[in-house]
Design goal:
By secondary structure, this protein is mostly helical. The chain has 2 domains: 1-33; 56-161, Serine Threonine Protein Phosphatase 5, Tetratricopeptide repeat (Alpha Horseshoe). The protein has 7 helices and no strands.
């Protein structure tokens, strides 16, 4: 009888284990079906490609780069102490800067500085007046305002222009 009781216990354990594994298998079998019904597919991120530029935009960018190069040449002459060269260079390329107010103002400012440094005060004043006509809010940097040659000229023009 002891043997049959052991067999019954083993059979009960086996049946319970089978039932439990069937439940687990049933749950696991349902999960893939649920996932298959709502698949989550990762789409590869496409690299951000800017739209191609129009020929007009490319030409405009090239024209601005050329004007910037002209201004850089003007500033280089000024920084090298070639004030007369800077004045001549601005006179020859000034029209190329006109479409770009910021570049034109910089060219005018350095030309005014060059005129003041070469003792052409009237021409210096006229350049500052041109700058104010182009942009009534034109101003010098704080370190530029106190210069002994062009600082007073600029201050008089600014006061006259009412800025």
């Amino acid at each position: 009888m002891k043997m049959s009781r052991k067999c019954v216990n083993l059979a009960t354990i086996f049946v319970l284990a089978s039932l439990l594994s069937a439940c687990a298998t049933d749950d696991q079998a349902r999960k893939p079906d649920a996932q298959a019904a709502n698949p989550v597919t990762a789409k590869p991120a496409a690299p951000a490609v800017p739209p191609p530029e129009s020929p007009e935009k490319i030409a405009e960018r090239a024209a601005r780069a050329a004007a910037q190069a002209d201004l850089d040449g003007i500033i280089a002459l000024y920084n090298n102490g070639d004030y007369n060269g800077e004045i001549k260079r601005f006179a020859s390329v000034g029209d190329a800067l006109k479409p770009y107010k910021d570049l034109q103002l910089q060219g005018i400012k350095y030309t005014a500085f060059s005129y003041c440094l070469t003792k052409h005060i009237t021409l210096c004043r006229q350049q500052f007046e041109n700058a104010f006509k182009l942009d009534p809010s034109f101003d010098l940097l704080p370190g530029e305002k106190g210069h002994p040659l062009w600082g007073p000229v600029f201050a008089r023009v600014k006061k006259k222009e009412g800025s």
